[in-house]
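Why do we care about 3D structure at all? Because function follows from shape, and shape follows, mostly, from sequence. That is the central idea of this module. The next example makes it concrete: a single protein chain, its amino acid sequence, and then its structure expressed as tokens.
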Amino acid sequence: MQIFIILAFGLGAQALVSRDPTCCFGLTASGGVTGPVGQLDDGQNRVYGNYPHGTYCIDAQGGLTDGHGRGCILTPPTTQLQCDVGARPTPGFSVACDGTLSVGGNAGFFACATGDQGSYNLYTSPVASECVPATLTADGCKANCPPPPPPVPKTCPAALSGPYEFPHLIVPVNPGTPNQAYGTTYAGQVTKDVSSLFNFDIPPSDTGKTCSLVFLFPAKSDLQTSSFIFSGAGGIDFSELSGVADASTTFANAPPIKTDYGVTTVAPGNSYTIATFPCPAGQRIAFELKAVGDTSLVYFQDFNPSPIGLYITKC
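And the structure:
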């Protein structure tokens, strides 16, 4: 985010105007020339030449005033950065959050050889063949940088090849009998009549880890100790709940949905990553699986080869 004011080149008026310098800084050049920006007694700003380091103050209009109270302007027609007694400062300067100085949103300056002690004057446009691009960086008055975007979470394996959590509670609920508690079961039921709620306990030792909610649906021929009955299009709506279930949970008193992850269409012989999130270490969390359309799936939740059902993998 930058302090941005539209650049105006109305430099004809040289009368002294009231200014309110609110923040001051020194400048360093980099690029074609490298070193601190110094000043001659007459207000020219130069790199190299062993001149005293300049100090610049920026006001609310983006105008610069040097440490001697002189207004800094871009002299026409060459656009040399010069600070003169009685000059009205050119508005539109700004200091970015990394310290880069720009004017009118343009951070490109040019350093052009003066022929005097190997020094270079500063411009916003090249004026001779001996000009090189330069960036000016302030040592203060930096704008506040926006916070970096959160890192994209990595996705843990959609397989039980590493650490994982098995559901510690599975509870079916039926909107057709909204007040009936069916208690716990080892089977996941996702039909037009029944949805299933799953509780997971995430241990405190998982602080700082990533969790992925995965649904494993192997082919029936790959199962050794489990089985399933499946029909329909395979649409299942996966949601995280705002609370957890227990043996007395019914459709009527089930926790409301916190986050709906949308519909995933499942088919035997596949694994699915439903959601990835920072592991809520030391907490118990719950999820709901609800059939969409004509989907009907009843299976025995089992981690034996090949694993089937809803799990949380960790990485």
